[in-house]
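Treating backbone geometry as a discrete language has practical consequences that deserve illustration. No coordinates are needed to read the tokens, only the vocabulary itself. For completeness, the protein is quoted in full, as a sequence line and a line of structure tokens:
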Amino acid sequence: MGTHGVSRPPVAPPPHNTTFGRNAGDQAHDWVVDHSGGDARICCGQAAITRRNQKGGLDIEFNATGPRDSEYATGKPVVDLPVREFMVPVDTVLKAQFITAAAAARQMLRQGSGVIIFLTGSPARPHTPATAGIGAAFGAVENLTRHLAIELSPAGVRVVCLRTAANPDSRTIQDVTGQIAMTMNITQDQANASLAESTLLKASPRTTDTARAATFLASDRRA
């Protein structure tokens, strides 16, 4: 499990950093934060971010953590869903987003700037059955987005959430469509076509489309 951020460059950036951003010399850094535990891990997350940014600032926080689709119990109706399986997305996705966003927010409040980006999917406002667990977690993440925006925006910190439709080239959606195809006795291509048909444009976005949207939201051009 990990989180990613973009920080203003330290004095001596490590050689593996990649140039990124609006100014020459801006750097993109990534680091590992263990957010599998409770409140104690918030301190770990804060320490990791602080260590990485002792000589710079934290501009963007983005966390793409999540278990595999097989752990979401996708495909099971609520009446057949054990509470343990229902809670998996809440105990992973929601908890991880809270821990890393809270840690980043503390740093951003001190510097008076920054962007926190959350990512959810269409089950946040479900239009298909048997996605109760991940839908509840995504819905809670979107609610957390609004709460953080209210608290952080007066200090100049932006908080946004990008809800994407199914990206057919992503690992998670490939797992989902494989399971749908097996359950409905259709091909995986047919399952992908069905998901695309449920979108307004009748075409599913690719992961690159989602990445470009997230990059735009994090940029100075978003206004």
Remarks:
- Confidence is low (pLDDT under 50) at residues 1-24.
